[in-house]
Amino acid sequence: MFSNLGYFTVLEMEKEINEILENFQKRLPSANTKAEVAQISAEITGPNGSLTALMKVIPTLDKAERPAAGKLINQAKRRIEPMIAEAYARIESAQMSAALGQKPDISMPNFDIPRGTLHPLTLTIRRIASILKKAGFTVAEASDMETEWFCFDALNTPSDHPARDAQDTLFMPKEAKFSNVSKHSDELYLLRSHTSSVQIRAMLAEGVPLKIIAPGRAFRRDTVDATHSANFHQIEGLYVDKNVRLTDLKATLDFLFRSLFGGSVKTRLRPSFFPFTEPSFEVDFMSADMGKLSNKWIEIMGCGMVDPKVLENVGIDAEKYSGFAFGLGVERVAMLEHSIDDIRHFYANDVRFLRQF
Ligand code: PHE
To answer: Ligand 1 mean position to 168 CA, how many Å?
Structure first.
């Protein structure tokens, strides 16, 4: 390359460097493997590389020319380095897409998509379920669509019973056909007006003893306002075994409401009426720490001892077995938990609301 060692000038060196760079830029794009890139760069900056050889020439130059020569070589190196890095990256990405068969890698995390959150009603259902799980309850589920028998008759509410009016509800037209329900003869279908229908389904499916909760939707022909929604959620509870007593119900409710709203919570049972429980009660609770509602009785749910007629309707011996049942409104609990003043927030899907949970 430079046979004229000793007579070499900076000008000649500059020419030489430009040739090296030109040659390098021509060859680099044709490198298809990392080894080829390494080979090309070694030929320039490696121990026997052409730039390295030029470095060795510096001491033979005229003293005044040495700094300028060093500078030229270093500049050349600095131009080469990013080009080598780019060649490696080009080969790596080509290898990666070859390995993926050009398909996008769906296992790669995407940091740009904001994660959603669980709906506040889901959170409240899960919270109540995890509390009652500790008391031995398991979760049962059934369809939102029910027959009149499961929703009313089996629950000791015949068609002329006035309690049906209170749940004046969403019946399906008689001739309606549903792909997901096997419709028998002339049974009347409705969107269940309460989750109590799951009591009947669970007793028929599992027999006794039985200790279940059934979270789910319920539907009523209610006019929507701040405290009413035609579509809402309940958690049904049912415990049937030998010797289940009212004190078991009271203890379960105390445990539930203390777990939900704090250790100082008190509960009380007020006589009430449901066709499927006898005796029946409304449950009130009171807490010292409920904001504006502190130290006031707050009506929260219905409950009672399972009416023996209900047990008999599903073939359970009411002489041997007894039970308690309760039905809790999920929206009401969530509203108290988070001081939410309007039930409609739960269904508006406004992310400014939803993001807060
Ligand atoms: N199903 C009743 C309602 O929706 C609540 C309830 C459930 C009452 C179980 C007693 C026992 O109003």
So the answer is: 15
The beta strands (E) that lie in 87-209 are given as: 138-139, 145-147, 189-191
Spatial separation of the C-alpha atoms in residues 112 and 124, rounded to whole Å: 29
* CA–CA distance, 241 with 203 (Å, rounded to integer): 11
Q: State the Cα–Cα distance between residues 222 and 239, nearest whole angstrom.
A: 30
Q: How far is the CA of 284 from the centre of ligand 1 (A)?
A: 14
Query: Residue 66, Cβ neighbours under 10 Å: how many?
Result: 15
**Residue 323 and residue 311 in contact, taking contact as beta carbons nearer than 8 Å:** yes
Closest residue CA from atom 2 of ligand 1: 327
Q: Using the mean position of ligand 1's atoms as its centre, give its distance from the Cα of residue 273 in Å.
A: 10
Whose structure tokens read 């720490």?
289
What's the pLDDT score for residue 50? 92
- Per-residue pLDDT reduced to its tens digit, 104-145: 777 888 777 777 899 999 999 999 999 999 999 999 999 999
d(CA 287, CA 333): 13
Q: Compute CA 329 distance to the chain's CA centroid, rounded to the nearest angstrom.
A: 22
Which pLDDT does position 9 carry in this prediction?
A: 83
φ/ψ bin of 102: left (φ > 0), alpha (ψ from -120 to 50), beta (otherwise): left
The string of pLDDT tens digits covering residues 224-276 is 999 999 999 999 999 999 999 999 999 999 999 999 999 999 999 999 999 99
Say if residue 3's pLDDT is above 70. no
How many angstroms separate the alpha carbon of residue 326 from the centre of ligand 1? 6
Please say whether the beta carbons of 280 and 304 come within 8 A.
Answer: yes
Q: Which residues line ligand 1 (CB under 6 A)?
A: 194, 196, 274, 277, 302-304, 325-327
Instruction: Indicate if the alpha-carbon torsion angle 241, 247, 253, 259 is positive or negative.
Output: negative
pTM of the model: 0.69
